[in-house]
């Protein structure tokens, strides 16, 4: 399948032992220390690149840069083999984002190339830590381009001319050095440099086949795709298609979990697969569980999850690495047995659409420090009772932490389980489904990005749970389902727009495919939430939830003939109800204003213990990305 002989690597938990730290040079730790400092004060910028004309398969470059005193400095760039989602990492600051169709793949914006720029504000304000969403860009034909990025400007800051696509689903050449074991180790010890060079992505090995179930393979610390060679070669490729998630394993597990969600979310919208099997080794199982518990309920497919040698209880020795190492890899903090991350994994159960099967090895060694282990992880962690309680089946093998990935008995059991799950899936798909056809038209300026709508299905007879289904921004007509038979009210949700009709009653049943039509009309809206950076140290790439401990007193929006003040409700309100009614509301630290005319506004927020927060806003109906991420800094605290 590929020429390089794989060398299977361990989870690298053993590397956190103080004795192992002396094998690495002072320069390595100086670089690691500098990287982790930058990551701590950086943010991931994500968005989607679309086009106002037909250029489906043009290679795309997206770059974030500063522009001070007419001096542009590229901070990070990424390359895509087609239009679609992107990710950039930048330190705290203000940035412009440009995208262009790099026809000759020279990483330079040349004359005659289509281009576009993020136009949601004068610049993107990137806080320290977290994710900034919906930074969508529309590229236009060369003769109509008007951007703040001169023709002839290169984006490569290290002299590289390599065009490596970070589009989810790009087909990988596993002979490429970037998929080697050496790069896998680099992703552990230098996660920031790895991310800037390679990114983090879900790769395909063949073109997508709707008749085959995808199996997503997720490696552990220091891992790379080569560790999965035995699985790639021995699964039934007539039934399954292998994908793999390749990521910098030294980064915080929470950030890599969110990146996995972003990739799978975009792939599901594009291909609409109904089943996803996930196989994860070692620390990769923690990434997957975090992904499933935090985001699994938002994804409309059935998941079968097979974990192999995962340290479900964390690792007590990681605490020593965090305490004594001259530089600390972010992932070490997450795998501490008593740390916040491991404890948070079990505060929420995995969704009911997930089936978990636990594989582990018990051939290790015994010593006073690590009794009963698989040569890397203790059995008490591999068989943590919290994970056992949710597993459908548990399989033990006379293998160690590494050999379990190349064991013939393990592979035989793994394939037997896959076939059983596949046959079960086949029987389920043979049952006639109840589908719904949705037609969508947007009344929006073509120079603005088109939003991604959300389908909302509510049972009128209270027989079924509310269904929320994410659609593609390219979907003007799609068939979705199956849904249980019954009577429903169907609605469409898209920030910056109002649906017409607001809601439509339908009946779903066997042999009937109701058709609903929605016209999405521009509506001025401002949505925001407050986070408090003084309470928690967020890494780049970890989604920051609204801080419910911040006590908001009032939220005022003034301008364009509008003067409205919100006081947070004492009881919960449903976001979708308020959106469909066009009713302003605030709950705790989250707020929405609707029906705003175009113009300039001032947003003012008063909270207990902080001075008033004020910022200027420019409003344009149909500008769906007008979401405010408000950070109350520690220095703002007054009591």
Supply database-style keywords.
639 residues, alpha/beta, Immunoglobulin-like, Rossmann fold, 4 domains, seven-stranded mixed β-sheet, five-stranded antiparallel β-sheet, 32 strands, globular, disordered N terminus, disordered C terminus
Q: What is this structure, in a nutshell?
A:
This protein is of the alpha/beta class. The strands form 7 sheets. The protein has a 7-stranded mixed sheet, with helices on both faces. Strands 2, 3, 5, 6 and 7 form a 5-stranded antiparallel sheet that branches. Strands 1, 4, 8 and 9 form a 4-stranded mixed sheet that branches. Helix 3 packs across helix 4 (191-197) and helix 6 (253-271) crosses helix 7.
Write structural notes for this entry.
The protein has 639 residues and is an alpha/beta fold. It has four domains: 104 residues, Carboxypeptidase-like, regulatory domain (Immunoglobulin-like, Sandwich), CATH 2.60.40; 256 residues, Alpha/Beta hydrolase fold, catalytic domain (Rossmann fold, 3-Layer(aba) Sandwich), CATH 3.40.50.1820; 87 residues, Sandwich (Immunoglobulin-like), CATH 2.60.40.10; 112 residues, Immunoglobulins (Immunoglobulin-like, Sandwich), CATH 2.60.40. Helix content is 20%, strand content 31%. It has a seven-stranded mixed beta sheet with strand order 10-12-11-13-14-15-16, sandwiched between helices. α3 crosses α4 and α6 crosses α7. It is globular and about 75 Å long.
Return the domain count: 4
Tally of helical runs: 14
- Secondary structure category: alpha/beta
Let me know the number of strands: 32
Radius of gyration, rounded? Answer: 25 Å
Give the CATH architecture of the largest domain: 3-Layer(aba) Sandwich
Q: From the 3D structure, determine the CATH topology of the largest domain.
A: Rossmann fold
Low-pLDDT segments: 1-24, 633-639
Task: Look at the structure and give the mean pLDDT.
Answer: 85
Overall geometry: globular
The helical percent reads 10-25%
Strand order of the largest sheet: 10-12-11-13-14-15-16
Q: By CATH's scheme, which homologous superfamily of the largest domain applies?
A: Alpha/Beta hydrolase fold, catalytic domain
| Main sheet makeup | 7 strands, mixed
Distance between the termini: 63 Å
CATH class of the largest domain: Alpha Beta
The percent range for strand residues is 25-35%
């Amino acid at each position: 399948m590929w020429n390089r002989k794989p060398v299977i690597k361990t989870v690298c938990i053993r590397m956190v032992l103080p004795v192992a730290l002396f094998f690495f040079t002072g320069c390595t730790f100086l670089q690691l220390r500098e990287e982790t400092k930058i990551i701590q004060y950086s943010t991931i910028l994500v968005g989607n690149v679309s086009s106002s004309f037909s250029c489906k398969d043009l290679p795309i470059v997206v770059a974030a840069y500063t522009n001070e005193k007419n001096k542009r400095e590229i901070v990070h760039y990424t390359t895509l083999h087609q239009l679609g989602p992107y990710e950039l990492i930048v330190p705290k600051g203000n940035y412009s984002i440009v995208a262009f169709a790099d026809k000759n793949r020279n990483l330079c914006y040349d004359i005659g190339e289509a281009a576009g720029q993020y136009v949601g504000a004068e610049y993107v304000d990137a806080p320290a830590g977290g994710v900034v969403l919906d930074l969508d860009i529309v590229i236009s034909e060369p003769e109509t381009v008007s951007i703040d990025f001169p023709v002839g400007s290169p984006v490569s800051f290290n002299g590289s001319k390599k065009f490596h696509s970070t589009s989810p689903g790009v087909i990988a050449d596993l002979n490429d050095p970037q998929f080697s074991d050496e790069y896998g180790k680099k992703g552990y010890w230098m996660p920031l440099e790895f991310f800037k060079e390679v990114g983090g992505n879900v790769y395909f090995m063949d073109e997508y086949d709707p008749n085959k179930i995808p199996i997503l393979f997720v490696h552990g610390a220091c891992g790379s795709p080569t560790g999965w060679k035995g699985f790639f070669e021995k699964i039934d490729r007539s039934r399954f298609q292998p994908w793999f998630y390749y990521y910098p394993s030294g980064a915080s597990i929470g950030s890599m979990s969110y990146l996995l969600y972003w990739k799978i979310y975009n792939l599901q919208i594009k291909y609409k697969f109904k089943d996803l099997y996930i196989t994860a080794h070692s620390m990769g199982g923690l990434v997957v569980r975090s992904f499933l518990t935090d985001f699994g309920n938002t994804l409309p497919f059935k998941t079968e999850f097979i974990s192999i040698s995962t340290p479900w209880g964390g690792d007590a020795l990681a605490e020593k690495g965090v305490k004594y190492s001259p530089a600390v890899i972010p992932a070490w903090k997450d795998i501490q047995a008593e740390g916040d991350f491991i404890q948070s994994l079990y505060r929420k159960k995995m969704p009911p659409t997930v089936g978990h099967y636990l594989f582990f090895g018990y051939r290790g060694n015994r010593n006073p420090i690590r009794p009963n282990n698989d040569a890397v992880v203790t059995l008490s962690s591999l068989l943590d009772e919290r994970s056992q309680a949710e597993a459908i089946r548990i399989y033990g093998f006379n293998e160690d932490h590494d050999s379990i990935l190349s064991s013939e008995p393990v592979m035989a059991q793994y394939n037997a389980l896959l076939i059983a799950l596949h046959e079960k899936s086949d029987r389920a798909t043979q049952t006639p489904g109840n589908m719904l056809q949705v037609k969508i038209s947007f009344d929006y300026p073509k120079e603005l990005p088109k939003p991604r709508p959300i389908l909302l299905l509510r049972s009128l007879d209270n027989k079924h749970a509310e269904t929320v289904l994410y659609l593609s921004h390219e979907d003007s007509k799609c068939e979705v389902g199956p849904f249980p038979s019954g009577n429903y009210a169907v609605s469409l949700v898209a920030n910056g727009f109002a649906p017409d009709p607001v809601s439509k009653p339908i009946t779903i049943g066997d042999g009937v495919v109701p058709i609903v039509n929605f016209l999405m009309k521009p509506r001025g809206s401002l949505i925001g939430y407050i986070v408090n950076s003084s309470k928690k140290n967020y890494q780049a790439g970890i989604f920051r939830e609204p801080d419910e401990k911040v006590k908001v007193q009032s939220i005022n929006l003034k301008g364009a003939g509008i003067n409205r003040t919100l006081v947070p409700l004492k009881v919960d309100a449903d976001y979708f109800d308020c959106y469909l009614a066009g009713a302003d509301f605030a709950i705790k630290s989250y707020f929405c204003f609707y029906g705003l005319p175009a113009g300039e506004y001032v947003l003012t927020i008063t909270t207990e213990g902080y001075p008033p927060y004020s910022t200027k806003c420019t409003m344009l109906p149909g500008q769906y990305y007008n979401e405010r991420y408000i950070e109350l800094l520690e220095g703002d605290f007054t009591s």
